[in-house]
Amino acid sequence: MTPRSVRDGAGRAAAPWVRTRLRTAPGTAWALGLLVLLTSFLAAAFPRAVEQHADEGLRHDIAVADPRHSVLELNNPQPELQLPPKEREAAVRAAALATVHDKVRSALPAEVLPDTADSAYGFRTSKPMASQDRWLPRPDRVDPRLTYSTLSALPDHATLRAGAWPAVHGEVTESTPEVEGAVTEETAKVLRAKPGSTITVPTQDGKRLTVRITGIVAPKHRGTAYWSAQPLLRTPALVPEPNLYPPRTYWTAAVLLPPDAAPVLLATTGEPEMFWRFAPDASALTASRLAALSSSIASLEGGPGLVRMRALAGSNATFTTDLDEILTGYATLRRAIGPIVTVAAVGIGAVAAVVVLMTAGLVGGRRRAELALLRARGGSLCGIGGRLFAETVVIAVPAAALGLLLAVPFFDRARLGPSVVGPAAVAALVCLALPLGAVLPHRRPQLPGAREDLMDARPSRRRTVAELTALVLAVGAVVGLRRRGTGDDGGDLLLSAAPVLVGLIAALVLVRLLPLPLRLASRAVARRRGAVGFLSLARAGRGSAGGALPLLALLLALTTAAFGGSVLAGVADARDRAALHTVGADARISGVLDAAPLPDRLIRAVRAADGVREVAAVQVVSGVPLPADRDGTGRMKNTTVLGVDPAAYARLARSTGLGPFPADRLRAAGGAAAKGDAAPKGAVLPVIASPSVAAELGDGPRELSTPAGDLTVRVAGVVPRTVAVPDSDFLIVDAASLTRKQTTTLLVTGASPDAKALRAAARQAGEGFSVRLRSEERAAYVDTPLLKGAWAIYAAAIVACAGYALLAVLLSLLRTAPERTALLARLRTMGLTSRQGRRLLGLESLPQALPAAFGGVLVGWATIVLLAPGIDLVGLALSTGPGPVALDTAQLRADPWSLTLPALGVVVLTAAVATVQARWAGRRGPITELRSGDPR
What we know:
Elements: H1 3-13, H2 17-24, H3 26-64, H4 67-70, E1 72-77, H5 85-91, H6 94-107, E2 114-125, E3 129-130, E4 145-150, H7 154-157, E5 158-163, E6 178-184, H8 185-191, E7 198-201, E8 209-219, H9 225-228, E9 237-240, E10 249-257, E11 272-280, H10 290-302, H11 304-313, E12 318-320, H12 323-366, H13 368-376, H14 381-407, H15 417-439, H16 461-484, H17 493-496, H18 498-513, H19 515-526, H20 532-541, H21 548-583, E13 587-590, H22 600-608, E14 614-625, E15 638-644, H23 646-656, E16 684-689, H24 691-697, E17 702-706, E18 709-718, E19 730-734, E20 745-749, H25 755-765, E21 770-773, H26 774-779, H27 785-815, H28 817-829, H29 834-867, H30 874-878, H31 896-922, H32 926-929
Parallel strand pairs: 4-10, 6-8, 15-19, 16-18
Antiparallel strand pairs: 1-11, 1-12, 2-11, 3-4, 5-8, 7-8, 9-10, 13-20, 13-21, 14-15, 14-20, 16-19, 17-18
Helix pairs in contact: 2-14, 3-12, 3-14, 3-15, 3-27, 6-11, 10-11, 10-12, 12-15, 12-21, 12-27, 14-15, 16-18, 18-21, 18-29, 19-20, 20-29, 21-27, 21-29, 21-31, 22-25, 27-31, 28-31, 29-31
């Protein structure tokens, strides 16, 4: 054999380090790979879920918005009068309008994405014109006012019910005396029109223009933008004449003309205009293009975009849409949701990072003897760290890539770019934490069997500096959040990390304070005869001083869960209060504007309905003028006077929490009110007033003139709001003191008032009486896809935090599992029973579980108290409600279940793991565990 062959054989005999290590410990490699896989999957899925839910929320808001607000409309007045008639007529014909429509559509920005199916264009009268035909209905002897419009592609969006489609016969000009038209079924029913009916249209020169109805049509899809952008095209409306009392109403409706009949409208007095209406198609719209879309709309309404539109449609063209308001509402809600979702992201990210560090510590601890031997034989820190880094890279990078690939199909509509950052960060953290955590303890030689007990450890200066730095960051985040709030920009990362920083500080404080109760408990147990308690506390005190990581993971998980529960509780509480503000009680029965008197039979029926516990009768008198200012400026204000039964109304106000007051404050002196008689003339009546009204009236008696009688009142109390009129100024007076008494509103309290019985009683009493239920108002607050997505993401984050907390407990116990097993084996040789062994391990784990559970409850509550002033949930809770509600604020509210249940779960979980470990160790014999020279 040649020397070269000897050298080659020796080279082939050297086994590669990475392959050898992976084959030696495949279980550890698979466990680490699985942890990286799951963490990378969550890191990749989180931004994809946020983006997809944001996109769905934006599309939903645009899709469900009223087409009158969401459509994009370009209008241009009729052609200039100095143009020749032929040019004016040609400019409004269907061909010319279609050409402009196509050019405008192609010139719109890509973010607008107009939908061709529901878009329309035509020529219409912008001002309704009175029609004097005798056969038309006149409810209050007022002539109906009609608009006339051509509409593109009418046969594609309507079905002919009677007659024939309107058409033109020959060329229609400005002077054509008669054209054909059509109306919808609803319009024909109201106007009593039928095929063959004629309508006379007023013209500028006084000549007769007749529109003959030839067809009755029905919309195919009445809810689309084609028909709903201008509802008058399909549905007539009864409109009151302005500035008249009592009001007189008249009908207004639309008549549809064929497209080429547009020139005839030039002769009318209806100020005709051309219009091009585009329905936005949000099916491909994404939240990332929201800023570009808002900028494009602003440009079209009054910027370079409008200049381009005028170059195509005319120099006087205007572009109008309320889509920007829809986008602003969506952006406001998204900014309100952003900090909440970021808290979940930071929370689960912090817990996952802690678990990764615990895993690195566990792996490094298991290989401490091996690495110490390599150092003793001359291995450098860089060389050992490089080999460990290569081992980790082989496991972590493929696992992180696989986690990313698994997350993509779950949210396939999101962008790939933001999803790569999370798995890359996870892989980098694992690849750096494991080698560094394993190598750094070997910078100096270590004595065999040396320990750093929790009871005797003294924190180093570096640790103290790091803890003080974290404390400064936590204080800054909490103070910044309380002073600035989440703000219009949604806050920043430091503010969103405030709950995590508070949990971090709490964990550090608990680790520093934990030796004190352990010493006290050890002294107390040492005097007792039993050995199990003393051994368990001694074992807990001999635990590693680096046990802050398990406690930190548990506290962060509990804080994140408590914060999420407080957000949900605050939102639910705000919606409950909003529903109460709107209704005032569990149910409210009233007439039009709370002014119509309720008949006695209705009041009796309401009191007898199922589920009604008490009924408070209220007389609402609106528009009562207050006395003029004492300074003689003549400035006057109006208020609402409420005549109530003091006892019943005070009970209602106390039960709802809206302006409670003692009933005796409204009792008039002299007892007249108690007998049911009106107050004698000149008697001063005590009243409860809102703050502004009380400031106007002052402290002395003031005279009021009301439809219910003349009163002399003195303010006896001030409350900020009241149940009958929660959002306006008021005066509450004893109804028995009023001269003209009547009940206009009933406020019903009860566990579940029978809605059917209440509405049946209102119908039987006559028309104009309405029934509103608090439960129905509360149910009207529905979550949009954006809100549902945020709740789903936070719920998934809490579940993931619970999983990582479980893993943290397991890793903490696995770190000391060999020592525990050996201890049980030695103690069993001394007569320790299996039951005592289970008690020993269970009691040994309690010093870690109990501080984590108690600290989790305390830290969760403290986090909510500290951060509540800086987080306003009004936009988050009420943005999807049926209407505006004047709530001052909606803050976080501690949820007892979110605080206590996860904490109890930590204790139960730790005890269960300790019990399982004790049972498993009890099945192995002492000979198997105890060997000569075993350092455990």
